[in-house]
Amino acid sequence: MKPVCLVIGAGAGIGGNVARRFAREDYHAVLCRRSDQEGLKRLVSTIEAEGGTASGYLLNAIEEGSIESRVEAVESEIGPVEVAVYNLGAQIGNRSLEDTSHKAFEMGWRLATFGLFRLAQVVCPLMEGRGHGTLLVTSATAAMRGNPGQHSHAAAMGGRRLLCQTLNAEYGPKGVHVAHLVVDGSVDAPDTLGKMLGPERYRKLRETRGDGLMQPDKIADTFWHIAQQHRSVWTHELDLRPFSDSPWWNE
Amino acid sequence: MKPVCLVIGAGAGIGGNVARRFAREDYHAVLCRRSDQEGLKRLVSTIEAEGGTASGYLLNAIEEGSIESRVEAVESEIGPVEVAVYNLGAQIGNRSLEDTSHKAFEMGWRLATFGLFRLAQVVCPLMEGRGHGTLLVTSATAAMRGNPGQHSHAAAMGGRRLLCQTLNAEYGPKGVHVAHLVVDGSVDAPDTLGKMLGPERYRKLRETRGDGLMQPDKIADTFWHIAQQHRSVWTHELDLRPFSDSPWWNE
Amino acid sequence: MKPVCLVIGAGAGIGGNVARRFAREDYHAVLCRRSDQEGLKRLVSTIEAEGGTASGYLLNAIEEGSIESRVEAVESEIGPVEVAVYNLGAQIGNRSLEDTSHKAFEMGWRLATFGLFRLAQVVCPLMEGRGHGTLLVTSATAAMRGNPGQHSHAAAMGGRRLLCQTLNAEYGPKGVHVAHLVVDGSVDAPDTLGKMLGPERYRKLRETRGDGLMQPDKIADTFWHIAQQHRSVWTHELDLRPFSDSPWWNE
Amino acid sequence: MKPVCLVIGAGAGIGGNVARRFAREDYHAVLCRRSDQEGLKRLVSTIEAEGGTASGYLLNAIEEGSIESRVEAVESEIGPVEVAVYNLGAQIGNRSLEDTSHKAFEMGWRLATFGLFRLAQVVCPLMEGRGHGTLLVTSATAAMRGNPGQHSHAAAMGGRRLLCQTLNAEYGPKGVHVAHLVVDGSVDAPDTLGKMLGPERYRKLRETRGDGLMQPDKIADTFWHIAQQHRSVWTHELDLRPFSDSPWWNE
Fold first, then answer.
1. Maximum pairwise Cα distance, chain D
2. Is B176 on the interface with A (CB under 8 A)?
3. Do C248 and A249 touch (CB under 8 A)?
4. Contacts of C179 (CB under 8 A, 6+ apart)
5. Nearest to C165 among D97, D154, D161 (CB)
6. C38 at the A interface (CB within 8 A)?
7. Do A146 and B164 touch (CB under 8 A)?
């Protein structure tokens, strides 16, 4: 029975590429995303075409019990979740305080913070029982500082970052590796950046930016490395950005 | 008509003392707390006995519309909220991940993050309209790093801190001063520390710790100073702790 | 005998205004600066005209023994250094790595880091002996993050910040208050900004920026407040910037 | 001609293992250390026995011109320095402020900060000329916060960290990858930990701590990974610690 790499938020960007990377290393990839059954099938087929195995599920992470029951089903039907990847974003663009509805503020928290809490609550004890496991959390600079218009996003990601620290503090000594990976740049992802820009502008941006767009299969290499670190040398937090970008802390 | 200093979370510790300090400087203090009508009356009476004016209201901050309607009533019946103090904590003690219920996790967010968002959403535009105003946010080291057992608290306070940054980024240039004040130590507060320890242990601790317990009237001096800073030299974040304590970042 | 407020780096900006503020509160101000005997006399005269007392000395902080012998002379001839202010900057403008000479890199360290170490080494034990005292350190965002071209400055100020933390860790419990004050904006100071810009551009900037230039006498108010904090509620670090500026951490 | 991995500070811990790791990946390893010609030979022999190539040099990093001339000789005689590793520590144990001599304070800076500046000044332009290259800097938690007794070390490492940021800001866009790697734990290194403890205590510690001691060959895996990151997804900073240790930010 293969170990499982479970990805919550598996589009054609970071999530799908991380799933594919682990599948290549003989994990069974379980891909979950909210919508787009076709896109999901395509990702699973790509992995299978490369000789890997994968399963895909539509999953509405903010629905009560959705993450929990998916983890339980995977554990009983497929195999132990050795690596869980929480890759849900909560960026809604810049909105002034007055234009940020209660609902939008709460939704940010449900996606970015509470969903991770729920995933951790179900996978960490299982990993603890096995004495090992890895929880990789994709994050953003909104977890490090609050920019204008980012009320919902920054409050939610700031919570996510410190939640990763409390999880690490409790589960690290039990053999569970929790890592907070700050993606500080634009990812070359057709499902997010591509849809935001439209096909024409997306094509042009890819041409002009080149390696200034973060390549998600290369991000996946670092996710894989972190999951492979020997337990005497674990990384809890790192940043990732294109060589050509200024880090968030620079002027 | 006096300017108003509105305190959300006005017990006998930081909140009550900040209210009293502003009342002494000729603000009308509006004290809000969830329960203890007697304690509330006592605080109002103390302020009045010192020659100040104050009003007290029971207010359940997590109830929909509670903060919003209180601000509206104060603005129409008492005076403009020149200074708003968000002093609600969300510390529930250390709980393992498995012992942290969904409800407890959400409650932390509602008290520490969402309540501040709601207060800001109603007072910041009013202050912007007047061209000035101050929002002082009491915070904790759980806003800076996530300790073991602090899943609910740290996620909520981490969100609070970055929310203060987004509020500052949007409202600073409009003349509204938002400050995040990190209280890194035990406050000599009968309503929180005192109730937690019981009268006997509390009495003893006060004797042995002396100035190692943060005196809330002295904390209030710094809150007052920050609210008085000239707008060319505003502080957004500072820490406060007893001389005898190690800061959170030290070993 | 009045307590002394010793200012290392006393020009017409932050340093001179802090000296003046303390002199108004019945401290004897001791002003030290590297050059400009006339400017020094003017600052002393201004303080005296306001009814205060002050002394001025030319002092080359990087010269061996200069700070040490000045402190000793002040302690024996004037009075106990109750408050020491280290206000020497080390900004040399942006220089590429190749254009940053060994000498410039070392000079940054000598001014920004080593000079503070030397001051601390002589005043902290004296303050410890008296059971109280305050060391206020003016700092910059170069202490928080390294910007392009800031090789010398950022390395030196990054060292300064952590030195403040080690001093605080060792001397806080002994009653000595060490504070690191991050000035994140342009200060309306004729001796630095004024000389950099020239009289005409400086005049115009003051007109157009208004409260967007940090007023040094207002900065002095916060220095004074920090020095007055009760020892149960000390601030170790805070930031200061104009309402109209973006903090360094924002995009 | 093989690319060169130059290690400044190549003992039997992180430095030697990083050299060995790169040698296994077909780099020529150049090992530099201040003393112990025998240890140096042993490291070179180990690499050669594994089929790699390496050279060893004694190098006193604080001596004027030492790093510069070594880099020049390597570039002209061996090959291009594709990866430079700055692995010199400056930990001198805890010393009170009064027991920290001017010399010790300066030595910390010369080793931890100025030496890195000098290395960068000679290798970064060479790497820029080639359009690629990597500078890996081993660091410590003393770069993040100042603990008691760490006056020299923290001031020096705090400077090192911000210097890494200024180097990254200037050279990242030119294709040179600068990374700051915070080692937050005890490394199982005979040349440092071993000598500090003596053979008997070192043996016992290894038995009792097990994976709680950071294994330097595993640290080398992460150094290797960072040097291999695609330039669209570079890491500038990460931490490394044993699963069983509390991070520096936790209580």
1. 52
2. no
3. yes
4. C134, C135, C136, C137, C164, C226, C234, C235, C236, C237, C238
5. D154
6. no
7. yes
Neighbours of A74 (CB within 10 A): 21
Mean pLDDT of D26-54: 97
pLDDT in tens, B10-66: 999 999 999 999 999 999 999 999 999 999 999 999 999 999 999 999 999 999 999
Res. C192: pLDDT tops 90? no
Closest CA to A104 of A145, A139, A153: A153
Do residues A21 and A7 lie in contact, with contact meaning Cβ atoms separated by under 8 Å?
no
Q: What φ, ψ does residue B86 adopt, rounded to 5°?
A: -100, 105
What value, to the nearest 5°, has the Cα angle with vertex A244 and ends A238 and A249?
50
CB proximity C244 to A under 8 Å: no
- The residue of chain B nearest to residue A162, with distances taken between CA atoms, is B146
Whether D242 contacts D214, CB under 8 Å = yes
Q: Nearest-CA residue of chain B relative to A105?
A: B114
Residue B208 CB neighbours (<10 A): 9
**DSSP 3-state of D102:** helix
What value of ipTM does the predicted structure carry? 0.97
Query: Residue B106 is which amino acid?
Result: E
pTM: 0.98
The H-assigned helical ranges of B60-150 are: 66-77, 102-109, 115-130
Give the pairing type, strands A53-58 and A28-33.
parallel
What's residue D7's pLDDT?
A: 98
Residue position matching structure tokens 């899943």? B151
From the CA atom positions of chain B, what is the Rg in Å? 17
- One-letter identity of residue B213: L
Find where tokens 């001017």 sit.
D102
Instruction: For A117-134, write each residue's pLDDT tens digit.
Output: 999 999 999 999 999 999
Block residue for tokens 């410190």: A162
B44 HSE (CA, 13 A, CB side): 16
> How much is the mean pLDDT over chain A?
97
